[in-house]
Amino acid sequence: MNNRPILLVEDNPDDQQLALRAFRKSNLGNEVVIASDGVEALDYLFGTGPYSGGASPELPAVVLLDLKLPRKDGLEVLREIRASERTRLLPVVIVTSSREEQDLVNGYSLGANSYVRKPVDFNEFVNAVQQLGLYWLILNESALG
Predict the structure, then answer these.
(1) E strands present in the chain
(2) Residue 128 neighbours by CB distance under 10 Å
């Protein structure tokens, strides 16, 4: 099993708490690192800003990325992840409430590994988190090792 952290990039505190509850209910033991905006997510991934000064943080097993974020939106975050040698193979799952078809097309065009629309029902959300965890943390063979 992959014990690297999960990076949850989500600005809505309610959705952050919902995700954390869903991870606990799913018995996923991975640490969950929360970034509340796109700049914070990139700082974590590249060891800049508040994460500078030492070795770059361990890359997460997977990035769960919302699209509608302050300071730098999810598509720009994805573009920067894919542009860097360090992170270009990092699994990125867009998890968003967006119903815009163009967001789906843009996400895949920029290299998202998966695109999941947020369910509003907690039980559906727990099920989605369990499936994400099963696949990305247990079954998937990562190129990052």
Answers:
(1) 6-9, 32-35, 62-65, 92-96, 114-117
(2) 19
**CA separation, residue 127 to residues 23, 42, 54, 119, 130 (Å):** 10, 28, 37, 10, 5
What is the distance between the alpha carbons of residues 78 and 99, in angstroms, rounded to a whole number?
18
Q: pLDDT digit of tens for each residue in the chain (145 aa)?
A: 568 899 999 999 988 988 888 888 777 778 999 999 999 999 999 999 998 887 777 899 899 999 999 999 999 999 999 999 999 999 999 988 888 899 999 999 999 998 888 766 777 777 777 777 666 555 555 655 5
> Cα angle at 31 between 33 and 43, to 5 degrees?
25
Give, in order, the Cα–Cα distances in Å from 83 to each of 30, 77, 80, 87: 26, 10, 5, 8
For the question of whether the overall pTM of this predicted structure is more than 0.90, the answer is no
Tallying the residues shown for the chain, one arrives at 145
- Tell me the β-bridge partners of 6: 32, 62
